[in-house]
Amino acid sequence: MSRPETRITRRFQALKEQGRSGFVTFLTAGDPDPDTAREILLGLPAAGADLIEIGVPFSDPMADGPAIQASSLRAIKAGMTLAKTLDAVRDFRETDDDTPIVLMGYYNPIYIYGVDAFLADAKAAGVDGLIVVDLPPEEEGELCLPAIEAGLNFIYLTAPTTDDERLPRVVKNASGFVYFVSITGITGTKSANIDDVSGHVGRIKKATDLPVAVGFGINTPDQAAEIAGVADAAVVGSALVKVITDNLDAAGRAGPGTVEKVLDLVGELAQGVRGA
Amino acid sequence: MNKPNTYRAGVDEDGHFGIYGGRYVAETLMPLILAVEEAWNEAKADDDFWAEFHYHMKHYVGRPSPLYLAGRLTEHLGGARIYFKRDELNHTGAHKINNTIGQILLARRMGKTRIIAETGAGQHGVATATVCALFGLPCIVYMGETDVERQAPNVFRMKLLGAEVRPVTSGTGTLKDAMNEALRDWVANVEETFYIIGTAAGPHPYPSMVRDFQCIIGNEVREQLPELEGEGRLPDSVVACLGGGSNAIGLFHPFLDDDGVRIIGVEAAGHGLDTDQHCASLTGGRPGVLHGNRTYLLQTEEGQILDGHSISAGLDYPGIGPEHSWLRDTGRVEYVSVTDTEALDAFQLCTKMEGIIPALEPSHALAHVAKIAPELPRDHIMVMNMCGRGDKDIFTVAKHLGVGVTEE
Ligand SMILES: Cc1ncc(COP(=O)(O)O)c(C=O)c1O
Question: Which of A107, B43, B168, B209 is the most exposed place for a label (fewest CB within 10 A)?
Answer without folding.
Answer: B43
